[in-house]
Specification:
five-stranded mixed beta sheet, alpha+beta, about 170 residues, three-stranded antiparallel beta sheet
């Protein structure tokens, strides 16, 4: 055998031994089944246990004497009476000022409790709307509100008042 052939055979044998050793150390070799590529088994004797060193600290105690020089005075907020709601008779005509109503007339609804009734729009201007409330019989004053809506449905104004019974008698001069 020539020197060149001996060197070639030696290199091939060295490469084969290196590859075999790497596969065995990596856990990819099995005696019974030949070379198989699989994940090596990892064994953890205490799964889920993590050692944390205990840190011991001395408690910090702050002692400070509090001296009150002036007594604390708490002022009660002044409760101001709420202005009474205006009383409006059923069937009355009202002018409600509102900003930016636009030239196109929208809708006006009267709400009493869970009942909503449409109001008749007499005049619609960009700065105010004049309406007539629906006529109805009322036994006692009830809280009501009027909603002024734009043509596309946006509420522009809400007015709260007490709805009272219409007058029984109207005097004319």
């Amino acid at each position: 055998m020539s020197t060149r052939t001996k060197i070639t055979v030696s290199l091939v044998a060295l490469i084969a031994v290196t590859i075999s050793a790497n596969m065995v150390f990596a856990g990819c070799h099995s005696k019974h089944t030949g070379f198989r590529f699989h994940q090596p088994l990892r064994h953890d004797p205490r799964p889920g246990i993590v050692h944390k060193p205990r840190v011991v600290r001395k408690p910090i105690v702050v002692q400070k004497q509090i001296v009150v020089q002036e007594p604390v005075v708490v002022h009660k907020p002044l409760v101001q009476p709420v202005a009474p709601l205006p009383q409006v008779a059923a069937g009355s005509a009202l002018t409600i000022p509102a900003n930016f109503l636009g030239p196109q007339p929208g809708h006006v609804f009267l709400s009493i409790g869970a009942t909503k009734l449409p109001c008749q729009v007499l005049s619609w201007k960009p700065e105010a709307v004049t309406i007539t409330l629906p006529p109805m019989a009322i036994a006692a004053p009830q809280k009501a509100c009027v909603h002024v809506l734009m043509p596309h449905g946006q509420i522009m104004k809400r007015v709260d008042f007490l709805m009272v019974a219409p007058p029984q008698l109207i005097l004319h001069d």
